[in-house]
Design a protein that fits this description.
Layout (H helix, E strand, L loop, with lengths): L1 E6 L5 H12 L5 E6 L11 H9 L16 H4 L2 E4 L2 H8 L5 H4 L2 E3 L20 H21 L2
The structure holds 4-nitrophenyl phosphate.
Length: 148
């Protein structure tokens, strides 16, 4: 299974989702993350994401931001969007219905059909990042329960 985590900048939310799933995924799975924008291309995750991950025993320092690419529809089986804006921006690029069907809102794994959002923590403080971590940890746990 190849899973891609996507947010806007690929420096706050999706690096956490990437790190959490990578740490729990069965052998042989490939996990990556990307941003719908290329604003932070080449940068490491936001310090607040790195600190939050470290506090939970995860090292995400080695990640580097990259933009989402149309080719990702071929490389990945599941593409998780953090919020509805990400979802719209990704599905807009889908070349066909099968590609579009790979895109899901990540919180729907924990709360099916509710279309809950993972809030953008960029302009807030450390607390927002801790909350994002907890939300993602829950959604990823539920996702893995369906696939192991
Ligand atoms: P992310 O957060 O999408 O969770 O990585 C953001 C990072 C950067 C910006 C916005 C959101 N920005 O405007 O630069």
């Amino acid at each position: 299974m190849n899973v891609l985590m996507v947010c806007l900048g690929n420096i706050c939310r999706s690096p956490l989702a990437h790190g959490i799933l990578e740490s729990k995924a069965p052998e042989g799975w490939y996990i990556d993350s990307a941003g719908t924008s290329g604003w932070h291309e080449g940068e490491r995750p936001d310090t607040r994401s790195i600190v939050t991950a470290k506090g939970r025993g995860l090292n995400i320092d080695q990640q580097r931001s990259r933009p989402f690419l149309v080719e990702d529809f071929e490389r990945f089986d599941v593409i998780f969007a953090m919020d509805s804006s990400n979802y719209t921006n990704i599905t807009r690029l889908a070349p066909d219905e099968a590609s579009k069907a790979k895109v899901r809102l990540i919180m729907n794994e924990a709360y099916p059909g509710e279309n809950r959002q993972v809030p953008d923590p960029y302009t807030g403080g450390q607390r927002g990042f801790e909350d994002v971590y907890d939300m993602l940890d829950l959604a990823i746990k539920k996702f893995l329960e369906q696939h192991s």
